[in-house]
Design brief:
With about 140 residues, the protein is mainly beta. It has a domain of about 100 residues: Sandwich (Immunoglobulin-like). The chain is about 10% helix and about 45% strand. The longest helix has 17 residues.
Length: about 140
């Protein structure tokens, strides 16, 4: 009988102190954001390499419904981040081609960078209805 009481006490001890407590999961509530995004297909950008692969050309096929598009072109050269950024609006000829070079130009002389890596072009469009959209391009480097 004492053995039975001993086993019973051990069993109570096991269930009281060894078993973990069970907690209910919190109710899921989605985060609310102030900015709404549209699909990236809404940015009518045309991006292609220059024939010599020393840069890319950026232009837009139409600008209907867009207030502005900001662009950021970055890349690494020999461990240093380089790049250029800007904004295109309906007032500054959005269908004109912008040359984004892997290098710098001054007074008509261009100096190109080599050992390139991690090139990226990010477009952020602001629509006339207040929405924004992002589109990102990974750019393959040939140098």
């Amino acid at each position: 009988m004492q053995k039975f009481i001993g086993y019973f006490i051990m069993l109570l001890y096991f269930f009281e102190f060894v078993t973990p407590s069970v907690f209910a999961a919190k109710k899921f509530s989605p985060k609310k954001t102030a900015v709404r995004y549209t699909s990236s297909a809404g940015i009518p950008a045309i991006v292609h390499y220059q024939p010599n692969h020393l840069g890319i050309n950026l232009s837009f096929s139409n600008f209907n419904g867009l207030e502005s598009v900001s662009y950021s072109f970055t890349y690494n050269t020999n461990g240093i981040t380089q790049g250029v950024g800007g904004t295109v609006t309906a007032n500054n000829n959005p269908t004109d081609t912008r040359e984004l070079l892997f290098g710098t130009c001054s007074r008509g002389a261009c100096r190109y960078h080599y050992n390139l890596s991690n090139a990226r072009l990010v477009l952020t469009a602001k629509y006339t209805n207040g929405r924004t959209s992002n589109k990102s391009y990974r750019i393959k480097t040939y140098q």
